[in-house]
Design brief:
alpha/beta
Amino acid sequence: MEWGMKNRLSRMIKKDGRCFFLPIDHGYFQGPTSCLEKPGETIAPLLPYSDALFVTRGVLRSCVPPDTTVPIILRVSGCTSVVGPGLENEALTTSIEEILRLNASAVGVSVFVGTQFEHQTLRNLAELVNSCEEYGIPVMAVTAVGKELEKRDSRYLALASRICAELGARVVKTYWCKDFEKITAGCPVPVVIAGGPACDTELEVFEFVHDGIQKGAIGVNLGRNVWKNAHPVPMIRALNAIIHGGAGPKEALELFEELKKAK
């Protein structure tokens, strides 16, 4: 692996081998998502606790301070919306020249395995890897499922994750699910958790994140479970206690409650 690739990965994945990526790219298909109407205000208190920010170029330019030291993972696929017939018909949206101009530490692209756009989105990934490897830029593949949420099982996600790794992704972002170890066991590159089941309590979030870390994930790429929480800073700090501090779910909950009171 070339020095540039190693250096960019080391910015996002810390010395303990773990990471917390904060995604705010939801607007690229959802529009002004609740709690992300003003992305700059949402992320301001969270950036100090983030190992990288996953963001589109438009929001990066308009809402992220250019003097930030937080590494940028640039979302570079899109061209569909939540009001359309489906989310799977994606294309690459950003050139390699733009990626370099924006000084991205990595890029992220969605693939939709098992849909009519499987070939197209996997080719997007392959072409992006071809372009980015030349300049030492890591590609994070996102195993998206669109509106077909029932596909979030270990057999499907293990298949999709392995294919992404085979095509050259340096990191794979995939959903937490039951038997998560089957995904990490079959994926030869680092896996980060994209999310999990709908959670009613903070403890449920801490439990699935802890489970995923114990079963081989190096970290998370969690947005809504953080910035939609009524107490986002205590939430991200408690999650970091699991990821970087080795805390269990109950310890994380205790920290969350302490930080809420101290606020």
